[in-house]
Design brief:
The complex is a heterodimer of chains A (about 240) and B (about 450). Chain A is of the alpha/beta class. Chain A has a seven-stranded parallel sheet with strand order 3-2-1-4-5-6-7, with helices on both faces. In chain A, helix 1 links the parallel strand 1 and strand 2. The longest helix of chain A is centred in the middle third of the chain and has 29 residues. With about 450 residues, chain B is an alpha+beta fold. Helices cover about 25% and strands about 25% of the residues of chain B. Chain B has 13 helices and 18 strands. In chain B, helix 8 packs antiparallel against helix 9. The chains are: A alpha/beta (about 240), B alpha+beta (about 450). Chains A and B meet through helix 1, helix 2 and helix 7 of A and strand 4 and strand 5 of B.
């Protein structure tokens, strides 16, 4: 059965994805904070059919601990077949504009942690010559917008990093899956006014599950964001810069 | 996992009547992070998937706490058949987890898109009421978080809160998680029999016999037929299919199907009449046996998303009554006569007899008798007047009307149906309220 590490396991999207794998009897290594919520998720996955679930409490901003995370996962689980990186924050664009510290912290959490973790994981999977690395990026990384470009920058960086990684690991038979959710009804967007574009976490989870199974390159979730973003990307800059988005 | 959390979730009731404005709606994601309801000026009410038909899931001007996000399973004992999960887990999710292990819900209503918390708060019943009672009969314990703290409630602990919360319409606090027993099944298939009955007399005759033979029974009935054929319909009964050892696979294909097509044109008396006449003749013989998947047997309407839209923007009213079975069942006949006379065609009429298994729920709706569930397109005063008339018949027969489906019963009738309401009121959390509760206790408060 599949052995999966989930980093940022308390993410609702990650949980919904994990539930699909749990039904198949997958084994999980759940990384994140806080420990009590990880324990709640562990119980849920086991009740739904997971063969095993281990929890590992880690603050991902502690970059020094990243190697330990990967090492523990491989050792505890006896190898890994897949990893899903799902941690992140939506951040506060206005605060990021007012305070460099806030902007840098945002980039650290949503981008630099991915660089660090993906570098370690890439080497493991490259050596193993099989497996799947999936990261939750965002449609926000497809084009910078005034309303959340700091978050968008972190996601754009993540997407570009994944592109390069895919190119590198294709030769080793490792699939590298970039997931780009649109608007999802989760605690992260609790303060955002909901509209008809918002998707249920379960449907996004299903897209991710299927994308990982099939080893897709890029998964837009839900699928229609591929077309929305195509349009947004192709709006000429001289018009785009005058729009409020 | 496919339970539809709507992209644009509307905090309305399933009947779309009435629609009210709420001060705020707060999602609850973790059972460890419940909001402190004492910090709000307004009252709160838990809201799950909005499958209550009337105003029992609404809290006009107040706050709704959306508990449908709490979807964690806590434990599933596949040997003993015991499930513990958060209140926002839907019955659909429970089935996904337990059916592959040979278990089924002990009791299920006609939709699987309800939350466990909502199922308890309305003490839901199903086609097996005569065998298994309500869902409340199978709850082993739950956690209730009130404005003054958390309580574990069970048949042996905090018994009064346990009894008040089952069928308590969400007014006693927030159910965060619940534990319940599930039922062993030999297959996910139903061995079903359909029997045509020509009138109410035949219905009661078939019922009495079938109660002994079948775990699941429900009937569709034509409420527009009169005189000799009053109450004619189709009796549908079944048991979980238990394939004999070494037997051939079941006779029918397992493909789920929708037992009938709902018309897309506007519902009116003529269309209902035509439908009823047609549907009555569907099973060609007097008696038809088949083996089908449990989905179409238990959840025919779940195949149609947003079926309330059939009634358009005006919405619709559900009405479910129960009256004791007595003599020649004159009250139920009178109900049929009034409906036929009114010309307000009810499309989905469900007829069933309840058994005598008592629920622990203080405000539980089912009682021994015959129950009739109807829905009416909302045609303003005309519809309201008809239902008021039916209320009187039910009241005189010492029956009840189902709060989970109500949007209009009078305080006087409510108190006649549920004389225990005053006792129940002691257990309502002072920070909790609902549009329904304020409505049915309106004049009572001013006494």
């Amino acid at each position: 059965m599949l052995k999966i590490m989930i980093i940022g396991a308390t993410s609702v999207i990650a949980q919904e994805t994990a539930r699909f794998f749990a039904i198949e009897g997958a084994e999980f290594f759940l990384v994140g904070i806080p420990a009590d919520k990880l324990a709640v998720i562990k119980d849920d996955l086991v009740a739904r059919g997971a063969k095993r679930a281990e929890v590992y409490e880690a603050d991902l901003l502690d970059f020094g601990g990243h190697a330990q995370i990967v090492e523990s996962a491989v050792k505890t689980m006896g190898g890994l077949d897949a990893v899903l990186i799902a941690h992140g924050t939506l951040g506060n664009q206005k605060a990021s504009e007012a305070n460099v510290e806030v902007a840098l912290k945002e980039l650290n959490l949503n981008f630099m942690t991915n660089v660090s973790l993906l570098t370690l994981l890439a080497n493991y999977f490259e050596q193993q010559r099989r497996g799947c690395i999936a990261v939750i990026s965002s449609v926000a990384g497809d084009r910078g917008r005034g309303s959340n470009y700091v978050y968008g920058t972190a996601k754009a960086g993540t997407t570009a990093f994944m592109q390069g990684l895919r190119n590198r690991l294709a030769k080793s038979g490792v699939s590298v899956v970039t997931i780009k959710p649109g608007l999802v009804d989760t605690p992260m967007t609790a303060d955002v006014k909901k509209n008809f574009l918002f998707a249920a976490p379960a449907s996004v989870g299903k897209s991710i599950y299927l994308g990982m199974k099939k080893g897709k390159d890029t998964v837009y979730a839900p699928w229609f964001w591929r077309y929305i973003m195509w349009i947004i990307i192709h709006i000429p800059e001289f018009i785009f810069k005058k729009m409020s988005m | 996992m496919t339970t539809p959390l709507n992209r644009l979730k509307q905090y309305k009731s399933w009947g779309r009547y009435p629609t009210v404005q709420h001060k705020a709606i707060y999602p609850v994601h973790w059972r460890s992070d419940l909001p402190d309801v004492n910090k709000y000026d307004e009252t709160v009410l838990p809201y799950g998937y909005g499958r209550s038909y009337g105003d029992s899931c609404l809290n006009e001007g107040g706050i709704l706490l959306d508990t449908s996000y709490m979807q964690q399973f806590i434990a599933f004992d596949a040997e003993q058949g015991l499930v513990r999960c958060e209140a926002g887990v839907s019955l659909e999710q429970v089935l996904e987890v337990i059916v592959p292990h040979g278990w089924f819900l002990p009791v299920t209503p006609g939709t699987k898109f309800v939350s466990i918390g909502g199922a308890i708060a309305n003490d839901v019943h199903g086609k097996n009421h005569h065998r298994a009672g309500t869902i409340g009969c199978h709850i082993t314990q739950f956690e209730l978080v009130r404005s003054d703290g958390a309580y574990i409630c069970s048949p042996t602990e905090n018994i009064e809160l346990f009894r008040a919360t089952i069928g308590g319409l969400g007014l006693t606090g927030i159910i965060t998680w619940a534990e319940f027993k599930v039922k062993r099944i030999a297959s996910p298939l139903i061995d079903q029999e359909k029997i045509r009955f020509a009138n109410l007399d035949e219905f009661f005759a078939i019922s009495a016999e079938a109660d002994q033979k079948f775990d699941y029974i429900v009937s569709w009935s034509d409420c527009l037929s009169t005189d000799e054929s009053m109450g004619r319909g189709i009796f549908m009964a079944g048991n979980f299919y238990d394939p004999p050892l070494g037997s051939e696979p079941p006779p029918n294909k397992l493909k789920p199907f929708v037992p009938f097509d709902l018309p897309s044109f506007a519902l009116n008396t003529l269309s209902v009449k035509a439908f009823n006449a047609l549907y009555y003749r569907v099973p060609l013989g007097k008696q038809v046996r088949s083996v089908i998947h449990y989905e179409p047997f238990f959840y025919p309407l779940d195949a149609i998303n947003h079926w309330y839209r059939l009634y358009g923007r005006r919405g619709f009213l559900q009405y479910q009554l129960v009256v004791p079975i007595e003599g020649d069942n004159e009250p139920i006949r009178e109900v049929y006569r009034r409906i036929a006379k009114s010309g307000e065609g009810s499309f989905l009429v469900v007829l069933k007899t309840f058994g005598d298994i008592a629920s622990p729920g203080m405000m539980s709706f089912p009682m021994p008798g015959v129950t009739l569930a109807l829905d009416f397109a909302f045609n303003g005063e005309k519809t309201l007047k008809l239902l008021d008339e039916l209320d009187v018949i039910v009241r005189e027969a010492k029956g009840r009307v189902y709060p989970a489906k109500d949007a209009r019963m009078s305080p006087e009738n409510f108190r006649a149906y549920f004389p225990q309401w005053e006792q129940f009121a002691h257990y309502i959390d002072p920070k909790f309220s609902s549009s329904f509760w304020r409505r049915v206790t309106a004049s009572a408060n001013g006494r």
